[in-house]
Design goal:
By secondary structure, the protein is α+β, with helices and mostly antiparallel strands. The chain has 8 helices and 14 strands. 37% of the residues lie in helices and 25% in strands. It is an enzyme of class 4 (lyase).
């Protein structure tokens, strides 16, 4: 009986943006994230000698070769580690809108790493699972862990993995403003590559990261949510600024994204601790006190529909469901 494994999404507060090694997905910088309870992926893997090719059933639909490519990188590594040759059937249920800047690949590939290694009879450590998830999707390396995690960039496959930083069992939460859950025009992978190769702003972004990372780790250790929010908001804006300098330029922001950012600034004027972050997509995430989530949702419902507002608390790491 195949085991179902669940991984939750993580949202980076210090962003991963740019690869040092495209093939191995080695990043140019360390990043730091918070795993959340509201969005997750459940995955089951079966290795079967009767299959002639790997197949992926996502939310009940068989996926094409392009989607399967990321998945096969993880499966091939598992087969190598376990000495298997069988093809695999993967069933996955995504409780995250796919490819809309809500970290669906993070939870998806982390869950796959867990489920495939279970199915192959491997007993991998969290560090090994993080490396395995990374070769499918970089941000997935961090979803192995609950709470705050840091992805250490490393230099090669063995040194690039995430580590836990803090369990986040304190008054911190996140409120999502979903302005668009459609698939984006420029994928994270393509946007990242274009920015690294062509944006004159990219070097400035890289040079500023070490200071941001050490400052936010101190703020997390101090449980200083004001500092965590300020550093994360500044870091996100710097990341998005690099895309405007790319050739050709692009942005993940929409008019609704700008409206959401303004709404967060308005919350601050009302006295709330509220700071935004955004990934490679139009949706806005508000870093806030967990104890303020209901009040913020109520305030924002004057501007946005209820279905656009999703409250999240810190979530757990990778775990088996059955």
């Amino acid at each position: 009986m195949s085991k179902w494994v669940r991984a939750h999404t993580n949202i980076a507060l210090i962003k991963y943006w740019g690869k040092e090694n495209e093939d191995l997905i080695i990043p140019k910088n360390n990043s730091l994230s918070l795993t959340l309870d509201a969005f997750y992926t459940d995955t089951s893997v079966t290795f079967d000698d009767a299959l002639t090719e790997d197949e992926l059933i996502l939310d009940g639909d068989k996926q094409d070769a392009r989607i399967l490519n990321k998945v096969q990188r993880v499966l091939d590594e598992v087969r190598t580690l376990a000495g298997l040759e069988s093809k695999a059937r993967i069933e996955s249920i995504n409780h995250v809108p796919t490819a809309a800047g809500l970290a669906s690949s993070a939870s998806g590939l982390a869950a796959l790493a867990g489920a495939a290694s279970q199915a192959a009879g491997l007993d991998l450590s969290d560090q090994e699972l993080s490396k395995l998830a990374r070769i499918g999707s970089g941000s997935a390396s961090r979803s192995i862990f609950g709470g705050f995690a840091e992805w250490l960039k490393g230099q090669d496959h063995d040194s690039s993995y995430a580590v836990p930083v803090d369990d986040a069992q304190w008054d911190i939460g996140m409120l999502f403003i979903i302005v668009n859950d459609a698939k984006k025009d420029v994928s994270s992978r393509d946007g990242m590559k274009r920015t690294v190769e062509t944006s004159p702003f990219y070097d400035g972004w890289l040079k500023s990261l070490d200071a941001d990372l050490s400052a936010i780790k101190q703020a997390v250790s101090d449980r200083d949510i004001e500092q965590v929010g300020q550093i994360a908001e500044r870091n996100a804006l710097k990341m998005h600024a690099t895309t405007l300098g790319a050739s050709p330029p692009f942005t993940y922001w929409t008019a609704e994204s700008m409206k959401a950012m303004d709404a967060v600034r308005a919350l601050r004027k009302l006295g709330y601790t509220a700071y935004f972050t955004m990934d490679a997509g139009p949706n806005v995430k508000i870093i806030c006190r967990q104890s303020d989530l209901s009040a913020l949702k109520q305030e924002l419902s004057k501007t946005f529909e209820d279905k656009q507002l999703i409250a999240a608390k810190p979530g757990p790491g990778l775990h088996v469901l059955n």
